[in-house]
Write a structure and sequence with these properties.
The protein is an alpha/beta fold. The chain has 11 helices and 12 strands. It binds S-adenosyl-L-homocysteine and iron/sulfur cluster.
Length: 369
């Protein structure tokens, strides 16, 4: 079993069963989540016999790193992990600095990913995009993960381990993860319990202590889970992948639209906003001629009117299995303007890591294979 799959009460119970004093559980917990140890030998404050027992009973590291790729500007890294049963998942780290401080792409400062921060770290972010499933069952046609199909759910520990892997690397250069987005492979709400357990474990004050407000969960729009999430009132940010303004248009690119109508999704969002007081983000992959016209933008603005929300639009990233093209910059700007003139805030997201297939929807577990 993977040690990261345990929460603190379970670990405490287990150690009590082993006849260990109660403080040992906390020592292990701190080793894992404060000191970021990932091998039994690092737990030098534990007796050798206990270290041996832990090593015998648990896996400390669930992944083999198959390969990693850095973008040419050096600010995006995608790592391909192999799970013990052979499945592949990916996690992407994006380093953002204050744009004024960023050296130009291709400059010597940008040649190395590690050890060299973007010059000046004012407002710098280290955003980590992690996977929640190997593959995905939702089948969105424009998404490489969807094109792959569903392999399996990740355990809570496998989700947490992706964060700790990068946290260790960043620690070596005196940096840390500042934001986590659950936007890698998989549909987080399809793996609800494990995802929430992972979030709670990362959030644990006595452990990694990562603020829920710095975590964003993105869903294809599973209505019952949006409502459950609203009731649980976590401080995690919620993003909904909408991509279309009419049900039939949505169904043409997202099979899940057969199950949940846009009206039901928006109602669930209203419920979420009422329960939490938090703003919802709607994600919109701008596909040329499909959902990037001013007419679509105007309809979208009308549907979202009065909702505490924000639209995050991103020109479509290319994937092997979908012929759709990214909206032009001009169309994207026009889309944004139309929404904003109607009172709906909108940002056009920077595309990151496209040339290493690390952009949104490009994760197919296939780098270097
Ligand atoms: N399953 C979740 C989270 C992972 S996908 C979801 O669908 O929300 C993360 C985001 O990338 C989603 O908004 C998804 O719609 C978007 N996406 C998928 N394929 C894309 C592509 N080819 N280009 C741009 N965005 C894409
Ligand atoms: Fe799954 Fe999200 Fe890709 Fe759709 S966009 S197939 S829900 S990972």
């Amino acid at each position: 079993m993977l040690l990261y799959d345990l929460d603190l009460p379970s670990l405490t119970n287990l150690l009590a069963q082993w006849g260990e004093p109660a403080y040992r559980a906390r020592q292990i917990w701190e080793g894992l989540y404060l000191h970021l140890y990932d091998s039994p030998a690092q737990f030098t404050n534990l007796p050798i016999s206990l270290r041996a027992k832990l090593a015998e009973e648990f896996t400390f590291n669930p992944f083999t790193v198959k390969t990693f790729l850095d973008s040419s500007d050096g600010f995006t890294r995608k790592t391909l992990f192999q799970l013990p049963d052979g499945h592949l998942i990916e996690a992407v780290l994006m380093r953002y600095g204050d744009p004024a401080d960023m050296p130009p792409s291709g400059s010597p400062q940008n040649q190395r990913f590690w050890g060299e921060s973007p010059k000046g770290t004012r407002g710098a972010r280290r955003t980590l995009c992690i996977s929640t499933q190997a593959g995905c069952a939702m089948g969105c046609v424009f998404c490489a993960t969807g094109q792959l199909g569903f392999k399996r759910h990740l355990t809570s520990g496998e989700i947490v381990a992706q964060v700790l892997y990068y946290a260790r690397m960043l620690k070596d250069v005196n940096e840390s993860v500042t934001n986590i987005v659950l936007m890698g492979m998989g549909e987080p709400f399809h793996n609800y319990d494990n995802v929430m357990a992972a979030i709670d474990r990362l959030n644990d004050k006595d452990g990694y202590n990562f603020g829920a407000r710095r975590i964003t969960l993105s869903t294809v729009g599973l209505v019952p889970q949006i409502r459950r999430f609203a009731d649980e009132k976590r401080q995690v940010n919620l993003a909904i992948s909408l991509h279309a303004v009419e049900d039939d248009e949505r169904l043409a690119i997202m099979p899940v639209a057969k199950r949940y109508k846009i009206d039901e999704i928006l109602d669930a969002c209203r419920y979420y906003i009422a329960q939490t007081g938090r703003r919802v983000t709607f994600e919109w992959a701008l596909i040329s001629g499909v959902n990037d016209t001013p007419e679509v933008a105007a309809k979208l603005a009308a549907r979202l009117k009065g909702l505490l929300c924000h639209v995050n639009a991103i020109p479509l990233n290319p994937t092997a299995g979908y012929a759709g093209q990214a909206a032009s910059r001009q169309r994207a700007e026009r889309f944004k303007q139309t929404l904003e003139q109607a009172g709906i805030p909108c940002t056009i997201r920077m595309r990151r890591g496209i040339e290493i297939q690390a952009g949104c929807g490009q994760l197919a577990g296939a780098v270097g294979l």
